[in-house]
């Protein structure tokens, strides 16, 4: 696929599904004053290319912890995270950084926009770093996320919802192999949340990426192909 195409041009015939993500027996505890608390107690999860999945579960059940581990932002005590067949838990720091740059895009609850860059530069930032900046695609994202009139502003000049839209644009501009999102619509009104979901699912269909999204919303979860629930440190079997 060329990255010089808009999303409609980029739609490719359905490819055979390939396993993009396999999480096996993943364990993670946190130290607390009362001793270690096991949050993930042997999580198993698979996601194929072109597949979308909602990760649900009660507050404190470990959803963000799992996403952080998959995204290479924290390390597990035991278990495997295979991304495109490579074990992310055994990569060097440099290998993990390359994986984050070239394969993954992450939308977190905290937007992590770069304060010294305008919205325009923030949206393009990760795509430029990965050598995948595509002006036509970026323009389409800017239009669909209604960022046109905010492009020259800095993050501190934006509302929470506007920052969230810019962070979503930055993640999608990369056209990642694996899109991870932790409550990405938490600061958005219902119409904008729906627009994000439609956009993310368009990206999944057009590029065959995998999409794993943490949400508390049954309504949004129902828009994704699969729904799984984290409970007592493991994924409930559907
Ligand atoms: N750095 C940390 N140190 C100690 N405990 C932590 C740390 N981070 C998370 N926890 C604990 O681990 C558990 C899981 O947290 P996590 O943020 O993964 O849950 P969550 O399912 O994403 O919750 P929510 O839906 O409220 O965002 C919680 O009990 C939390 O208090």
From TrEMBL:
Record-level Gene Ontology MF annotations: ATP binding; ATP hydrolysis activity; transmembrane transporter activity
Keywords assigned: ATP-binding, Nucleotide-binding, Transport
Every ABC transporter domain range: 21-238
SMART domains to which the protein is assigned, alphabetical: AAA
Gene3D superfamilies hit by this protein: P-loop containing nucleotide triphosphate hydrolases
Keyword Transport among record annotations: yes
Keyword Glycosyltransferase among UniProt keywords: no
Top-rank taxon: Bacteria
UniProt-listed InterPro entries: AAA+_ATPase, ABC_transporter-like_ATP-bd, ABC_transporter-like_CS, ABC_transpr_LolD-like, MacB-like_ATP-bd, P-loop_NTPase
GO cellular component: plasma membrane
Similarity comment: Belongs to the ABC transporter superfamily.
Protein name (Swiss-Prot/TrEMBL): Putative ABC transport system ATP-binding protein
């Amino acid at each position: 696929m060329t990255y010089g195409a808009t999303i409609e041009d980029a739609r490719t015939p359905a490819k055979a599904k390939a396993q993009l993500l396999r999480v096996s027996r993943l364990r993670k505890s946190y130290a607390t004053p009362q001793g270690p608390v096991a949050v993930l107690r042997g999580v198993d999860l698979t996601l194929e290319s072109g597949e979308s999945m909602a990760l649900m579960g009660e507050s404190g059940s470990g959803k963000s912890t799992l996403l952080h581990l998959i995204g290479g932002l924290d390390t597990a005590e035991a278990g495997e995270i295979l991304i495109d067949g490579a074990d992310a838990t055994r990569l060097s720091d440099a290998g993990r950084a390359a994986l984050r740059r070239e394969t993954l895009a992450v939308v977190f609850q905290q937007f992590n926009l770069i304060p010294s860059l305008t919205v325009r530069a923030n949206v393009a930032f990760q795509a430029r770093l990965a050598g995948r900046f595509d002006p036509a695609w970026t323009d389409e994202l800017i239009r669909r996320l209604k960022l046109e009139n905010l492009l020259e502003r800095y993050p501190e000049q934006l509302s929470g919802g506007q920052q969230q839209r810019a962070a979503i644009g930055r993640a999608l501009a990369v056209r990642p192999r694996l899109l991870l999102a932790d409550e990405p619509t938490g600061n958005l009104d219902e119409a904008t949340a729906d627009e994000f979901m439609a956009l993310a699912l368009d990206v999944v269909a057009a590029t065959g990426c995998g999409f794993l999204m943490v949400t508390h919303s049954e309504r949004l979860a129902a828009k994704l192909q699969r729904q799984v629930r984290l409970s007592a440190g493991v994924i409930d079997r559907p």
